[in-house]
Amino acid sequence: MAASIAEARIERLHEAAREAARDGEYDSARSYVRRARRIAERHRLRLPTRFKRFTCDDCDVYLLPGRNARVRVRSGHVVVTCDCGTQARYPYE
Question: Which among 18, 7, 23 is positioned nearest to 62, based on CA atoms?
Fold first, then answer.
């Protein structure tokens, strides 16, 4: 039961981070992302794939392609580059 509450909280924080990033409030978005990661660690939960793909591992900012992230398609993978310079690669078929 506690896991479902934690999962719901992570989902709400994900939505809040997205809205804050859209409004240009990157510090608030960063705070929501950090809090969601902390909850997942505490309850030993995996973060949803959607959450992991749209957050930077280094600076914890919520990534918005075209605003603070660059997305490039290469052969067999997608490269997402944050403004801080961190790159993440995700495979596709």
Answer: 18
Domain ranges of the chain: 2-91
Q: DSSP for 17-86, please give it.
A: HHHHHHTT-HHHHHHHHHHHHHHHHHTT-PPPHHHHHTB-TTT-PBP-BTTTEEEEEETTEEEEEETTS-
Find out whether 61 and 21 touch, Cβ atoms under 8 Å.
yes
pLDDT tens, residue by residue, 50-80: 999 999 999 999 999 999 999 999 999 999 9
Strands 77-82 and 87-91: antiparallel
pTM listed for this prediction: 0.89
